[in-house]
What we know:
The protein has 9 helices and 8 strands. By secondary structure, the protein is an alpha/beta fold.
Amino acid sequence: xxxxxxxxxxxxxxxxxxxxxxxxxxxxxxxxxxxxxxxxxxxxxxxxxxxxxxxxxxxxxxxxxxxxxxxxxxxxxxxxxxxxxxxxxxxxxxxxxxxxxxxxxxxxxxxxxxxxxxxxxxxxxxxxxxxxxxxxxxxxxxxxxxxxxxxxxxxxxxxxxxxxxxxxxxxxxxxxxxxxxxxxxxxxxxxxxxxxxxxxxxxxxxxxxxxxxxxxxxxxxxxxxxxxxx
Length: 230
Ligand SMILES: *Cc1c(COP(=O)(O)O)cnc(C)c1O
């Protein structure tokens, strides 16, 4: 099996090629390495190969890994479903949260973000396709949520995030819709700079539609073992 380092290089090459094909600068797209279910040793291998930003889906698992690695050079992003009883651990341990989809969660994060840390970077998760089973704010409610979150202390509203269906046509439509929603918020004077969209299988499509962060797991670390916790 190829090493994490060579897989990482291949993913970075895909990102650069997709950016160039879209007429964008390769540096305009950041790679978030999704390390959920992988041990700290895998993160360390990726870090040694130059990767800095890592994404985790499960609060307990992520917090344990952050403590085990204890590397201030790494930047940790929480990208999993976020319940009210887990917000404190996220506010105290992560630099970014991509999955804020209601005001109550944002208020808790704002109240719990420690004063000695920089503001917590926030993306709002949007259920662009209106899928009943998916979490995420409805597009119709997004402007109100964004305005309210932008006004909270200790949080920095950075942008929008989506997790569309796996099928490429639907994904492209969802990515385009997310970008459109971000453009509308920009016109409403919210200074967003982030579109968190695209994963191992569809990062090229996401970059063509304007992604600024792609969240890539299996293409870097390999096929995931079954999740052991939630
Ligand atoms: C697991 C996960 C990813 C990475 O998925 P891959 O297909 O392994 O690249 C990206 N985003 C979220 C929210 C995830 O849960």
